[in-house]
Amino acid sequence: MRRVIGLDIHRTFAEVVIWEDGQLRPHGRGDRTRSGLEGFGRSLRRSDESCRRSYGQRHGGGAGSVVGRVIVANPMQVKAIAHARIKTDKIDAGFLAQLHASGFLPEVWVPDGRTERLRRLVARRNQVVRHRTRVKNEVHGILQAHLVPKCPLADLFNPRGRAWLERHVLPDDERAAIARHIREIDRLAEDLADLDQEIAREAVDDVQVRRLQTITGVNAIVASGIIAAVGDIRRFREPQKLVSYFGLNPRVRQSGLGLAQYGRISKHRRSHARAMLVEAACATAKAPGPLRAFFLRIRNKRGHQVAAVAVARKLAVLIWHLLTKEQDYFWARPALVAAKQRQLALKAGAPGERGVGRRGSAYAYNVKELRNSEKAAAENAPNVPTS
Predict the structure, then answer these.
(1) Which residue pairs, CB below 8 angstroms and at least 24 apart, start in 74-77?
(2) Do 189 and 218 share a domain, yes or no?
(3) Average pLDDT over every residue of 144-169
(4) Three-class SS of residue 86?
(5) pTM over cut 0.70
(6) For residue 51, which of 93, 100, 172, 189 is within the disulfide window of CB 3.0 to 4.6 Å?
(7) Which structural domain, as residue segments, surrounds residue 31?
(8) Are 158 and 115 in contact (CB under 8 A)?
(9) How far is CA 126 from CA 84, 185, 192, 215, 226, in A?
(10) Whether residues 215 and 198 fall in one domain
(11) In this structure, are 325 and 215 located in the same domain?
């Protein structure tokens, strides 16, 4: 006998309603504790089907391991619950059970354990990068407030950049604030290195990650983020579905006999993966190939930002074809791909080769020239008085 378990999950409890033989039967409210979930699991059957809305919880209220199937509903499409005039937890749970029993419940794809772990790692890395960017912007804001000229170096926070920063006169409290921010940046750099190593260990043996690395401009982090977001590529029947999943498809408005009006990209769903694709598009546009030619053609007509988004959309279509057909990128550069894979293996903990990465004689000449230019810039820099 078929039973559908409707769950309306909250932080500390879950409201349960059971659909059976066309009738709804309230089961009561269960605590979201280990003992409460174990007791609720003993009342279920292997033939039951559990359904709930997606709120970010990773487990189906404790029912995932004891029922036949767990269905996660798309909250954006189940609008009847949000717009109901009479709304309680019991009514919501019963409505979910009725929708699934009748076959009208919009489902959300649930990733497997490995994909979920990779998603968590990529999301945590993104949080660390964003936090580090905010801290760096605070340092730049302090320098701008005290009329300190722009740093002539590429990176203000490497050893040479910090030495350049020490030569400028700042108030004591601002100097102490910059020191705190630099310590925070160093700590975040250590966390970022640990997360990169964990992601590399997850991706080093992944065939799909290696395949995406054949695209110029796509490194291991971007490839891992795309694979974590996509999961099973077979759930996208055509490349346009994947483009829409990344939110790179244009908005369309059309009614009646009027012409369709196309707007900006929808920016729906996977914002982090979309940002990764745009970042990879900017890197891909610097290397010779058909994608660079496409980027230059669009940039001459619409500007740099529109061209980068257009290349990101091209990358999404290309990724679908590579993963679906299990082929490498035709315009791949073998030496660059080998270097990417070697770097990924080193991050994952593989032993390094003797002599690899050793600096040659040209490095010392370039460093000497750079130091001379830094010295000349420091001598010409004005001495800014303290405020």
Answers:
(1) 74/106, 74/107, 74/108, 77/106
(2) no
(3) 90
(4) coil
(5) yes
(6) 100
(7) 3-108
(8) no
(9) 37, 15, 9, 22, 13
(10) no
(11) yes
